[in-house]
Amino acid sequence: SGGKPVGFKLCIGHRREFMCIVRAMLETEILPDFIVIDGTEGGTGAAPMEFANHMGMPLVEGLTFAHNTLRGVGLRDKIKIGASGKLIHAFDIARTLALGADWCNSARGFMFAVGCIQAQACHTNHCPAGVATQDPSRQKALNVTDKAQRVANFHRNTLKALGDMAGAAGLTHPEQFSPHHLMMRVNDRDMVTGHDVYPYMPEGFLLRDEDDKFGYLKRWRRSSSESFYALDGGI
Description:
8 helices, 2 domains, alpha/beta, 6 strands
């Protein structure tokens, strides 16, 4: 690759299948530089309606599972994790960093800033806003000079808001967000921290075969580096 980072992006379906990939990493000692975890949240108007928001795991669940699986086999410090899936506001970024991501990919907010009206015609070449089209006549709808400034403003203000949130939490950098900075309401009366719901699992716990209450070991024992099929024939 000429020194360029090499990785892959996926939306996790069956969690055990991601563990199959991780087992293969351990056995071959071939590691990606990064993995981008995408969520089931539809991020493009080109996605079939039956797929968007229905196929695969939501970002939060997929991200925390990937993060903890890599921690469980001692590879988390060797592989960076990116995250994508309907991340728009500074809080979306802060929450995602807190739950294990090293960085966030954000497209939706920037699409809005450049003029997207969610016509869901991205794949037709007939985008009425001139954003997702190669048709010169339709591209005229997009004023590049005006939209470039809007995109720059959105980027600058989003990062400022993220920095303000980090400061309000007593942190010096957004990378210091962790699950305990998040509060989640579980019913009309009670709240818990993100650590109670999405904790960081202990380093190497899968290799030590330690028991856990989140189902990691059950799936790990049923995974194989040679096949995505479950060892016991299930899912």
